[in-house]
Structures
1.
Amino acid sequence: MINSVRNTVFSVLNKNNYGYISPQDFNLFAKQAQLEIFENYFDDYNDSVNKENVRISGTEYANATKSIEESIDLFSSIRNFDQKNYNKYFTPSPSTTGDDYYLLNKVIAYTTFRTSGTSTAPIQANVLVDSGATFTSTVVAGDIVVNIQDLRKAEVLNVISDTELALDEDLFMLVGDDYSIFQDDSYEAEKVSNSKITMLSNSSLTAPTSIFPAYSLNNDSITVLPKTVNNPGQIYGQYIRYPRDPKWTYSTLSGGQPVFDQSQPDYQDFELAIEEEVNLVIKILQYSGVQIREAEVVQFANIEEQKANQK
């Protein structure tokens, strides 16, 4: 979609010789346009829910709330959280889960720890081998195995022997990967503000338990209670991530102009749904008009945006 958007933007700009936008500038404008549309989803969702509450929204194909939910769900991710230390776990970030988060929706804890260890045998597809393990007495089918190196997880299909487990996913590609195994009895943790978490934990009536865990959000991590939740791979969450920065890439020049090449390693298309192409064009034109100081471009884009909002 990114090449189609760029071609449309350049077609509008070139129609009246307004000016040229470099690939670098286009990518900056594309990033801002995508981010603006993405963040508007949440305001639009709130407005749509309010309309539902006063019964002035549509149903079936006119159900705007459902449409916005689907747009937001494109950015939903479920990942295990990397352990910071003891009962603290890093929140999603490019260095831990590979992407930043916009909204941390759910934090879930595996509350029953089974065992942990290190894979010791050469690669075997969908099999965990640990020569020092005693799986027959500690693990049962249905338990969850987490590879601590990359935080991927799989379900135990069968306990083959004391030292081998059959998994439903191929997690262990290298010898020496650490793992944790938990019973599949996860519970959602309640978010508690930092000002109340101490009071909550000190009360015998409200103290978090393995069945009713709680967490507080800090700068780059969460603190989970009870403190028995302190094993690598024991926490996972569902969050809404930011869209990845779009990048229009090229490798050669033709007639002095860059030629689109999506085979470049840093190529990244827009992550928005295809129906947002018009909105992306409009918003990029707005940024482009400001950059080349052409008021007519901005005015044109603003008019088109008003038309789109009236539909």
Note: The chain has two domains: 2-36+246-310, 77-241.
2.
Amino acid sequence: MPSRYQIVFWNLENLFDIEDSPRRSDKLKRAIGKDIQGWTQVLLDRKVNQLASIIRQMKDGSGPDLLGICEVENDYVMNLIVQSLAPLGRNYAIVHHDAPDKRGIDVGFIYDANLFSAEEQFNHFVMRRTATRDLLQVNFRTAKNRLLVVIVNHWPSRSGGAERSAGYRAIAGETLAYFHERILEVKGTETPVLAMGDFNDEPFDSSLVDYALSTRSRQKVVNSRIPRFYNLMWHITGQDLGTHYFDNFPNILDQFLVNRNLVKENAPIRALLDSIQIVRFTEMVSTGGYPNPIRFGGMGKDINENGFSDHFPIAVTIVEQD
């Protein structure tokens, strides 16, 4: 019988360790400075519980099978999330890498170890003058012994303006496209590759189209002689919904990209194109004219203990044949 997996990505918005954490380097303490003041274990636990209350509702209350996350400081806060998911009774494990980002925020995975095993892990550096997040690649092996390569991304922000910072995201896109090609060379041309993350650009922006080689044309991806990604978020773009809101304008910054081996007909592992969704449970959404995500705050921002994150999660279902 085919297996169905729900894959989720969520930017958790500044999920930092406590103010006086012994797990934080002196360099990072200087970098984040006063922003971390007042961030107690009580507030951290509250934010973790808020986030976990949403994650537990995913996949009809059983929790996601694989969750990619960004804006986490370390494996300590990731394990707090896993502990808060214990009521689900799942065997969740984590993959985390301490990247050189100047603010100390990383990307990672929480996954059900009964369904996936993490065989290999690679960290692809995005070269720029100031440190930024790596691209974290994990080669997962499914319970049916098939390879699924997943890459979680958190591209350089739009700080200073979208145009001024666009070159940094172009570099990140080029990095992703390069390693996509390398994966197929090393692991075989039939390897399914899924890239997810907060790209800080929209599906139509140059960093994704011209550099990461993603497109809205499924047929182009399937037939192309060079490795391309099919951007699954084109199905949502233009519906007046966003994964993130800036000045009340909806932006699709959080995206799933899949290669040809996840969209071909009769592929052993296949993404269900009509399953794409922005996860927007009622308690996460602001009331009023603009459906912004309700953020928790912190790191210099006002705190709302009934909030969650400034991004909505996104979800997709993939099916694996027997």
Note: The chain has seven helices and 16 strands.
3.
Amino acid sequence: MMDRSTQNSGTMAVRNAHRFDETRLEDWLRREVPDFRPPLVVEQFKGGQSNPTYRLRTGRGDYVLRRKPPGKLLAGAHAVEREYRVLAALGRLGFPVPAVHGLCMDESVVGTPFYVMDMVEGRIFWEADFPQVPREERRAYFDAMNATIAALHAIDPEAAGLGDYGKPGNYFERQIGRWSKQYLGDTEAGRVESMDRLAEWLPANIPAGDDETRIIHGDFRCDNMIFHPSEPRVLAVLDWELSTLGHPLADFTYHLMVYRMPAGVSTGLAGRDLAALNIPSEEDYVAAYCRRTGRDGIRDLDFYMAFNMFRLAAIVHGIKGRLARGTAASAHADRMAASLEPLADLAWQQAVRAGAG
């Protein structure tokens, strides 16, 4: 069985379902990207479950194209124009994202809306234990991720020009409602008992207190980052499809979820000897984030974990639905879909830790 790195790394020929008229794209690049030079060679990245992503090899270097998938789509999903907007805004502030070169909403070019950005050369780590990194360097890589998400949450949305990028306040209530509705509405993917229980328990147990609003990534994990070729430094954060305005603790605890995820459900660290791997403990990682963001710990951590695992399970449920409809963007979407029930059960375990009956 292939590991995630082998499955997801590199490019391949464009899948039949995701082909388009490359001549039309070349014409668009000539008009919209000042430095573009032919010839153009289009390849598809292996990784990615949602928006098909392509490597554009050109006479003046490489670019990346991300597009909406073809076929029937859930309302509001795959909004590449939002990705483009947040990348442009954060890039202007010096946050590590690829530079963007153009957004095209004209479906006559490649069949669906798309945008083009720089190809950032570096390393992507698909496994949470960073096996390719020497043991003595792993803590520095974890610290780089921690510093990057803390820096994102320090950005004032208004100052970034993203004050209207989402709705402020009531983030958990709205998100639980959104993902519950998406889960319940995708009948082709079926129902899962633990998901049904969470959809009932979560809205009744949202923690009281301040409802902060920051720019959140929504899928912040090691394989959505490009690291420097030889240093523990994040060069670019990728895949902003789920970004919005929301509670920073929801974003951080989603990132933290890896500590409670076993390898059998996803790429996780649960049950691993972190000291032997020279990886900080969950407690130490939380403490580092809290130091950087001026927090005195994170109360209700188990609720946040239950919420995030439910949300992730709802996303996987959507992948299962796309698989049923024939629109899944990844060749191994079936493996993702198979993880749905174990992930939902793990999410319910977090709810039990938080006091669920």
Note: The chain has a mean pLDDT of 92.
